[in-house]
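WARN retry 2 of 3 for item q-0093 after timeout on previous attempt; input resubmitted unchanged.
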Amino acid sequence: MAAARAMRGITRREGLIALALVGPAALLASCTSDTAEPAPSASGTVPPEGAAEPVAAAEAALVAAYDAAITALPDADPAVIALLTTIRDQHAAHRDALGGTSAVPDAPPQPATEGAVIDELLAAERQAARDRIDACEASPDPELARLLAMIGASEAAHVPALREVR
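OK item q-0093 returned
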């Protein structure tokens, strides 16, 4: 099987990264809208004012963390930077799907080595996935809960992609 992939020019690493990135992107594409206004739920109600703000702020913090990581790794393999940029863009889309946030968090300090930077991002993604599950369970609005579940799934999918480049 590995020989078949190698003959096609796709390594295991590239295949896993592509799989980890395409799935969440497809999920998110189905949950974003063209407007910044929250979409009405199936019952016709709009999520309570501010219900998504804490998650949007957390997504903005993840965007800042990825921006800092990309800046901290100027000599990294271009494939690693491409992965980090793709994940960063997904977090920006999550933030925007939740109505965005006007607050721009400070970027966290980054460790000196590529491995340490990736480990920090792995920890942040694991925590974000757990936090999205909690927010999903606590959401009073079914549409917001659905969006939070898709975002949590995306964040969970980032973990194996990051682990692969570590």
